[in-house]
Specification:
Largest sheet: 6 strands, antiparallel
Strand order of the largest sheet: 1-10-9-8-3-2
Low-confidence stretches: 4-11
Structural class: alpha+beta
Distance between the termini: 125 Å
Order of helices and strands: HHEEEEEEHEHEEEEE
CATH architecture of the domain at 105-150 and 161-277: 3-Layer(aba) Sandwich
Protein name: DNA-entry nuclease
Number of strands: 12
Strand content: 15-25%
Keywords: Signal
InterPro entries: DNA/RNA_non-sp_Endonuclease_sf, Endonuclea_NS_2
Organism: Companilactobacillus crustorum
CATH superfamily of the domain at 105-150 and 161-277: Extracellular Endonuclease, subunit A
Number of helices: 4
Pfam family, one: Endonuclea_NS_2
Length: about 280
């Protein structure tokens, strides 16, 4: 009888124990946590690409502007041959959209004596006129005249000097008739004129760079050079500048051009050098 009772107790308790075990196991399973890791790498990559695209757009815009400016320069200079003029009427010419024109079929007006190298390299600057205006500058250029010292700041104000800030910089430069890199003349009143930024660079500078390159090729290279500011009547601001050059013994450097003293978007008063934007 006792044995039977023990068996009944075991049979009664066992299901309860098993149920409890099942609950514990189920409870253990429910306690397992699943962690989700968010990946932000694609957002960072997208942000970098957006920044990169903005920078590329800025670069493209700058390049497009440079291309447009270069094309304008090319178009103007391709038209030079159609704007040929004689020396005598330069002061009476009016700007018609082409800043540089050819004079005398591009032939400089030098005599045989002018082209002589018997005196070696030299430079000469005309006296200021009665209105204190700069006159012509002449030279027989050679690499021996080229300076090694860095150019110092300019302080001489030539006639017509009424400078002002415009889009992109200053309206006027103290323009050297003969560029500093060719002879080292800097604060020389006889070598400075009031010139617009575009007259000074790229127009005059382009010719000066061609000359400098030729001179540096050989110590025996010479160039006869003359630069003449052109005034109309008693005006104090030059209407333009005539540049003439002839390499000695060859035609590597050979030109006679006139550059109008103008600046896009600015109206100049040549009587005194004052100006109006627009």
């Amino acid at each position: 009888m006792k044995k039977l009772l023990k068996t009944l107790v075991v049979l009664t308790v066992l299901p309860a124990v098993m149920a409890s075990a099942v609950q514990v196991q189920a409870s253990s399973k429910s306690d397992v946590k699943t962690e989700y890791v968010k990946d932000y790498s694609y957002q960072k990559k997208t942000k970098k690409l957006v920044t990169k695209n903005k920078n590329l757009k800025k670069s493209i815009t700058k390049l497009q502007k440079k291309i447009a400016d270069d094309q304008k320069f090319i178009d103007e200079h391709n038209n030079k041959s159609n704007q040929n003029s004689s020396n005598t009427d330069l002061a009476n010419l009016d700007y018609n959209g082409t800043q540089e024109i050819i004079v005398n079929d591009n032939k400089p007006n030098f005599s045989n004596d002018d082209l002589s190298t018997a005196k070696g390299a030299w430079q000469q600057y005309g006296d200021l006129d009665k209105l204190n205006r700069v006159t012509a500058a002449n030279a027989m250029l050679n690499v021996s005249l080229m300076p090694s010292a860095k150019r110092e700041p300019l302080h001489w104000n030539p006639t017509g000097w009424h400078n002002k800030k415009i889009s992109g910089g200053w309206l006027y430069n103290r323009s050297h008739l003969i560029g500093y890199q060719l002879t080292g003349q800097n604060n020389n009143p006889k070598n400075l004129m009031t010139g617009t930024r575009s007259l000074n660079s790229p127009e005059m500078l382009a010719h000066e760079m061609d000359i400098a390159y030729y001179l540096k090729q050989s110590n025996s290279h010479y160039i006869r050079y003359r630069v003449t500011p052109i005034f109309r009547g008693d005006e104090l601001l030059p209407r333009g500048v005539q540049m003439e050059a002839q390499s000695i013994g060859d035609n590597s450097v050979h030109f006679n051009v006139y550059i109008f003293n103008v600046q896009s978007g600015v109206t100049l008063n040549y009587a005194d050098g004052t100006s109006q934007i627009g």
